[in-house]
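Entry — protein

Goal — fold tokens:
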Amino acid sequence: MKTKIVVILTIITVVMGIFFIWYFTPKKYSETVDGVYYQLGKEGIIEHVKVHIDGKLENHINGNKTFRGFIDFKGDKIPQIPKERAELELHYDGQKFTTIFSPFQKINGDLKGRIRTDIYQYGWMYTNDKFTDFTIKLTMNGSISLSEGYMITFPAKDRAEAMNKSQRLIKEFEQQ
């Protein structure tokens, strides 16, 4: 009888250990989704865009998720980061909000291949708990106008879907 209990407890411990290792190990997250780039205060969209997110998503014991990685936007009209900047980075800490930024500036001239610390903010990103819906208020090192600012929302097919998703995500963040 004692042996059965020890075997069962050992099996349960091993299964729980395997689950915890799997759950808390950072996982590769690489998604390309279609989104909409639009301006607040004006009808229609400016352009349909593709957004690629690549990095590692990690679960924590408190239920939050963190993400460390890069984000890239594909579109003709969407503002691109200057060529002398490093890639755009995302550091999400589970608070439904993060900043999209480029932490370094590439140095040209005699010091080719070198970089220096110089933060360039592209925008503010709001997301849901599952890290599947996103909306970005573009700042590009400037301020944002709440009535005429530019937004990127993904995944979205049209302005109405983008606006609804954007309002919901920002409201969820503000109610935390």
User: Anything to note?
Assistant: The beta strands are 27-39, 47-59, 65-74, 88-92, 97-107, 114-127, 134-138, 150-154.
